[in-house]
Prior knowledge:
Elements: H1 10-40, H2 45-50, H3 52-62, H4 70-102, H5 110-125, H6 128-139, H7 143-167, H8 171-179, H9 184-218, H10 227-235, H11 239-267
Amino acid sequence: MRKALTYPSHTELSSMSMRKKKHVWTALFLILLFAWSLWQTESSLLDFVNGFSNMFDLLIQMVPPNWAYFDNVVPPMLDTIRMALLGTTIGAILAIPFALLSASNVFKNKALYYPIRFILNLIRTVPELLLAAIFVAILGLGPLPGIFALGIFSMGIIAKLTYEATEGIDPGPLEAMTAVGANKIQWVVYSVVPQVMPYYISFVLYALEINVRAAAILGLVGAGGIGEYYDKTLGFLEYDKVSTIIICTLLVVLAIDYVSMKLREKLL
């Protein structure tokens, strides 16, 4: 038997029409917002197109890379990796109490977790480059200011992601621990930590990836690492050396991304 043809009802047609109108108005709003942003920033797509010739001139000067400069790049690149590792470790440790205090299902007092969340928002508002400049003014030139800047920056990211993951965990084990009369420390250690730990480690690895890239430019403000060599070579217009530094940084970032991806696949 043939199935009877069904046609959308008037209500369904009206709902479809409303959705289409909503999409059209959303698209128009985004287009107007984009045009307004271009106008306010005095940007021009024509200038961008005309600037392509300058970009190609720069690329020509960067090819071929100065491979003889590679030996000069390796030591500061290793410093950059060490800075990222130390900064991420500091941030990961500091993030643990902030994440627990920010989770509304762990500490239900709004007077406690709202101020902590505000502090984390404030930390994430400050760019790592500005943090590095502040620590350079306090501690002087060298890798140490960069390590502390990356540590504070990492803490803000890891703590936010971790407390959001904590609020999404299964409440069953939490209720079971409460029912057997566990204290707060036991409640956290045996109910919260086992559920959150895989996500926490994944967030730490993600922060490490970000910090390797961030550490590469902290030398622009005197915080050590490969950034100082970016500053020197760009200042003297030695673009063939700049391309060597970029390739070295790219290889390191790709290696860390690959290792982090494999570790996250095993954890989650």
